[in-house]
Amino acid sequence: MSDNQQNCKTIPTITAFEHSPDRGRGLARDMPVRWAFEEVGQAYDVHLVSFRAMKQTAHLALQPFGQIPTYQHEELTLCESGAIVLHIAQQHSGLLPPDTNARARAIMWMFSAVSTMEPVIVQREVAILAESDRNWHQQRLPLVEERIDSRLAQLSNRLGKADWLDGDFSAGDLLMIQVLRRLKSSSLLDNYPNLAAYVARGEDRPAFKRAFDAQLTVFNNLSAEL
Length: 226
Ligand code: GTB
Fold this sequence. Notes:
It is a single chain. By secondary structure, the chain is α+β, with helices and mostly antiparallel strands. Helices cover about 60% and strands about 10% of the residues. It has two domains: about 5-95 and about 205-225, Glutaredoxin; about 100-205, Glutathione S-transferase Yfyf (Class Pi), Chain A, domain 2, CATH 1.20.1050.10. It has helices at about 5, 30-40, 50-55, 55-60, 80-90, 100-130, 135-160, 170-180, 195-205, 205-225, and strands spanning about 15, 45-50, 70-75, 75-80. Strands 2-1-3-4 form a four-stranded mixed β-sheet. Helix 2 links the parallel strand 1 (about 15) and strand 2 (about 45-50). Helix 2 (about 30-40) packs antiparallel against helix 8 and helix 6 runs antiparallel to helix 7 (about 135-160). It binds S-(P-nitrobenzyl)glutathione. S-(P-nitrobenzyl)glutathione binds near residues 29, 67, 68, 69 and 81.
């Protein structure tokens, strides 16, 4: 192997929407992965995929559910944005604390984001995007929003006046903030100024801004082509 080959490190490749339905608002799940890469200073490539390609054999081999994002680096292929963020956080310093117990708690918050907060928030999106023509929609939406509100109240109580959920900013905050960002087009965060400020603090991080700009560039380039 030449010196050149030895020094040549490969970089991970992720997949993202070619045409993101969020129109560059950074709500699709490549966003937390991009953000994690930016936080730890890891360069990455992005392979853009169409909705059609996501359902075809080549992509299904990477992501059995036909979704984005995926992660590929050397021998490793991953899907699930939470698992990808965890892998990045474990490979680099900066997103998980070195202390064993603090690290376990940061990982706990990652799970809280994707398994306790996100499902109720996704239910609201499903209600609005896929169920608005059902005759029970007007009854269901307030119920879904009450469930979200209850989770927000609990999270708000726990966060209190702290900047982050447990000490320094961690991958737990990254995923939690990304999940809460999905409520920004609603008024649901208005009753919880500490959560709104928490989201704003996350969005103010230089790494968030770089990740956001990168995904926005995909949308802007697409718009320029049309
Ligand atoms: N649990 C998986 C993960 O975390 O990686 C979920 C992945 C997922 O839902 N991916 C979506 C997808 O590929 C994109 S992010 N959907 C295509 C399909 O299922 O056919 C979800 C998303 C889409 C659009 C918006 N938006 O427009 O605001 C926000 C979030």
